[in-house]
Amino acid sequence: MPVTRAAEDSGSDTFHIVSSNFEGNGVGDPGRRRAMHTTITDIGPGILLRQECDKALANNGKLLYEDEDALGLRGWIGPKKGKTKQLTGIFVDQSRFRCVGEWRDKTVWNQPPTTLSLKIDDCAVPFIASSVHANYSSPARRRLEAERWTTLNDKAATVPGASRAYDRDRRKTPVYMIGGGDWNSYPEPGLDHVQLPDWNEIDDEQHIAHRSVLDAHGRRIADSYPDQILRTAGLEDIARHVVHTNGAAHRQALAPTCGVDRQGGRQRVDRIYASKPLLPAITDVKVIDVDWSDHDVLVATVNTQEFIQILNRTWQLALAA
């Protein structure tokens, strides 16, 4: 289902957060790259979370600058680790957002995330945005990566002008986060309408090893540990939130984003999570079918004023302390 700038402009003051795993960054295929640019430009994201930014920094950043020029967004590419070719990235509409910090974390990650501290419009309160590409082959590594990512949900910032008593007792106030991408794993079963793979019917032995685990009874189940870890740590899958809050009219938010029949069919492996206090600002989530990548595009719509009010409220409480 397309989401366009025109549709956004006709409604209330909103912005889009988009997640897109662009297969191989379209390297060597200008047609696919143009198609990606057209789709993303039509959506008009405020924040674009990218995965598989292959060779984005090669040739003096040729592909990065090409993306920036075509999309009209400023791009950041996450740290490279070892011989990994796939990089993450974040592209930002600088007319709405400004970057005030960058987190470059390689710990436990096979493909380190791109993580920025951002401020929106004239709001003085920062928030964190992060683009993730979890390990494709190791459930154990994905658990470590998810645990590491939860540390972004425990950050805090000093409140300018806080009272002396507040400074002495609780110098800082929480900083919220929103981000996600390709988790190469599944949402916890029973919470979505998407049917998870039946591992008894899958012949791809490598895929079984990569994407399933044994439960306490020795039964083979889909790996949903990253989802469970993130939600335990106070983050929520925003697509699930939208459906549970708004009902069947928003059921398309839970559409699968990637997969093939021989590996159990299409699944919802691309997911965006947010700190729970930010959830009231998320008004919609959609999946856009594309033919230029093996992953479809995930689009979240955020109410700007609600988002800002939630951020400001954390500091207002601190100043009142």
Which secondary structure elements does this structure contain, and how are they paired or packed?
Layout (H helix, E strand, L loop, with lengths): L4 H5 L4 E8 L8 H14 L3 E5 L6 H14 L2 E4 L11 E4 L4 E7 L10 E7 L6 E7 L5 H11 L6 E3 L5 H6 L2 E3 L2 E6 L22 H7 E3 L5 E3 L2 H8 L2 E3 H9 L23 E6 L6 E7 L8 E7 H17 L1
Parallel strand pairs: 1-2, 7-10
Antiparallel strand pairs: 1-16, 2-4, 3-4, 5-6, 6-7, 8-9, 10-14, 11-12, 13-14, 15-16
Helix pairs in contact: 4-7
Walk me through what this model shows.
It comes from Streptomyces rapamycinicus. This is Endonuclease/exonuclease/phosphatase. InterPro entries: Endo/exonu/phosph_ase_sf. With 321 residues, this protein is α+β, with helices and mostly antiparallel strands. The protein has one domain (5-320): Endonuclease/exonuclease/phosphatase (Deoxyribonuclease I, Chain A, 4-Layer Sandwich), CATH 3.60.10.10. It is 28% helix and 26% strand. The protein has nine helices and 16 strands. A six-stranded mixed beta sheet has the order 3-4-2-1-16-15. Strands 5-6-7-10-14-13 form a six-stranded mixed beta sheet. A two-stranded antiparallel ribbon has the order 8-9. Strand 15 and strand 16 form a beta hairpin. Helix 4 runs parallel beside helix 7. The N and C termini lie far apart (46 Å).
